UniProtKB/TrEMBL annotation:
Protein name (Swiss-Prot/TrEMBL): histidine kinase
Gene (name only): rcsC_23
InterPro entries noted in UniProt: CusS-like_sensor, HATPase_C_sf, HATPase_dom, His_kinase_dom, HisK_dim/P_dom, HisK_dim/P_sf, HssS/ArlS-like, Sig_transdc_His_kin-like_C
Keyword Transmembrane belongs to the record: yes
Cell compartment(s), UniProt: Cell membrane
Pfam family, one: HATPase_c
Keywords: ATP-binding, Cell membrane, Kinase, Membrane, Nucleotide-binding, Phosphoprotein, Transferase, Transmembrane, Transmembrane helix, Two-component regulatory system
Membrane topology according to the record: Multi-pass membrane protein
Domain Histidine kinase span(s) in chain numbering: 243-453
Keyword Transferase: yes
Top-level division of the source organism's lineage: Bacteria
Annotated GO MF terms: protein histidine kinase activity
Reaction(s) catalysed by this chain's protein: ATP + protein L-histidine = ADP + protein N-phospho-L-histidine
Length: 455
């Protein structure tokens, strides 16, 4: 069953149950209210009639009288034909009745007829449910007032029927309104289902944003953002494979070409040595490229290749300088190190991986620096910052947004994977790496890490 039908069915059942329970409760409340009101009126009539009979007996000296005063003292809210009175003595003998007892015949054996026979004792003890009664003891005798229960139920049923009509109209309106609301709620879900099919079929660029409110709108926005991210990732993956195939093809072609030339005797003497040097150089380059691609794949995967610990950044910088010193001396570059704080700066990361990231960044700086490279460590806004600057030409504005993407490299770049690996390592450490240009010229790459809370 579709979700819309399930919601409509559940709402209809709930509405019917609610209206049914409400109708039953109102039925009994109305009935009790009318019965209570009728008893109060009978009580008032009984008191008035008792006073009238006592006054009449005092004047005439006899209790053998008809109850003609009943119509005159009845409240206007009750019809005189619906209330009947019986006066009996202590033994239960009927002494007199009201003048309007046209439907009730009273006999001397204390029984009267009102459709069917019933005695006063049943009325007095309340076992006769056909009547609402009020029994009052007077000096003259026992005054019994009664009104048929059917008169009250007929009024209650007439009012209840009107209420049922109102309930039916309200229920129909609520049902139609519920169907409208359900349609409004389900329609975005149906559209969202169509967009999810596009995601399933990898048509990420065709996914549209479904406009809706509340949680459905939030889910639709998440699906749209997810499709955009998947589309970008899919594009990056395709570009990665294209670039990877190109980067791998170049050294393989050089190795294959020189190997075939040496085998076929095309190269002789120094040409053979030169060809072997190129084969070794390209093999080393190919090995480094495969190693970097493998490392990057591991960093992107869920493999347990990242083992974190607390690392002192000053020790990491010292080791980086030691490893880069031969290259610095070869190029005649000077590396400057400075700290804002005398206390050691500590971060949590995989030491070997973070060292690799820093080596990649510094190596990239040596490629473009003219004379100087600066490494500066500081703490700002609860972040440990480590920046590497150079005095080179800086990063072009066209290249800056894509600097950390795979196989993106500058003019003198190598594989284009070094900074991508650095970004993956820093992000796996919970940090963020950014790039920009200095005001005085040259590039600056900053790695930020969250500070460690004191233990």
């Amino acid at each position: 069953m579709k979700l819309a039908h399930q919601i409509n069915l559940a709402f209809s059942i709930a509405l019917v149950l609610l209206l049914s329970i409400t109708a039953v409760v109102i039925h009994f409340v109305l009935l009790n209210h009318f019965v209570g009101t009728q008893k109060e009126e009978l009580r008032s009539i009984s008191s008035a009639m008792s006073a009238t009979m006592i006054q009449g007996t005092a004047q005439k000296g006899s209790i053998e009288t008809e109850l003609h005063a009943l119509p005159a003292i009845m409240p206007s809210s009750v019809g005189t034909a619906s209330v009947e009175a019986i006066l009996s003595d202590e033994t239960g003998k009927v002494l007199s009745t009201s003048s309007n007892m046209s439907s009730i015949a009273v006999s001397s054996n204390t029984q009267f007829v009102a459709g069917q026979t019933s005695d006063l004792q049943n009325i007095w003890n309340g076992s006769d449910a056909r009547y609402i009664t009020e029994v009052k003891a007077t000096p003259i005798g026992t005054l019994t007032l009664l009104t048929p229960m059917s008169a009250v139920t007929s009024i209650e049923q007439a009012l209840f029927k009107r209420l049922l009509i109102v309930f039916g109209a309200a229920g129909a309106f609520m049902l139609l309104f519920g169907l409208f609301i359900t349609k409004k709620l389900i329609q975005p879900l149906m559209k969202l289902q169509q967009e999810l099919k596009k995601v399933k079929e990898r048509h990420f660029s065709d996914v549209k944003l479904i406009k809706a409110g509340g949680e459905i709108g939030a889910v639709a926005k998440s699906v749209y953002d997810m499709a955009g991210e998947l589309n970008r990732f899919n594009h990056v993956q395709k570009q990665f494979f294209q670039n990877a195939s190109h980067e791998l093809k170049t050294p393989l072609m050089s190795i294959s070409g020189y190997a075939e030339g040496i085998k076929d005797g095309i190269f002789e003497g120094e040409g053979i040595d030169k060809g072997l040097d190129i084969i070794m150089s390209e093999s080393s380059r190919l090995k480094n490229l495969v190693t970097e691609m493998t490392l990057l794949a591991k960093l992107d995967s869920e493999e347990d290749s990242f083992r974190t610990s607390e690392i002192a950044l000053d020790d990491l910088v010292v080791e980086t300088i030691e490893r880069m010193n031969p290259l610095l001396m070869k190029k005649g570059l000077t590396l400057h190190v400075s700290y804002d704080d005398n206390e050691p700066l500590t971060v949590r990361a995989d030491r070997d991986k973070l060292l690799q990231a820093l080596l990649n960044v510094v190596s990239n700086a040596t490629r473009y620096a003219n004379q100087h490279i600066y490494i500066h460590s500081s703490v700002k806004d609860d972040q440990v910052l480590l920046s590497v600057c150079d005095d080179g030409p800086g990063i072009s504005e066209d290249l800056l947004p894509y600097l950390f993407h795979r196989f993106v490299k500058g003019k003198d770049g190598e594989s284009g994977l070094g900074l991508a690996i650095s970004r993956a390592i820093v992000e796996r450490s919970g940090g963020l790496i950014t790039a920009g240009n200095r005001k005085d010229g040259g590039a600056v790459i900053t790695m930020g890490f969250p500070t460690l809370s004191p233990s």
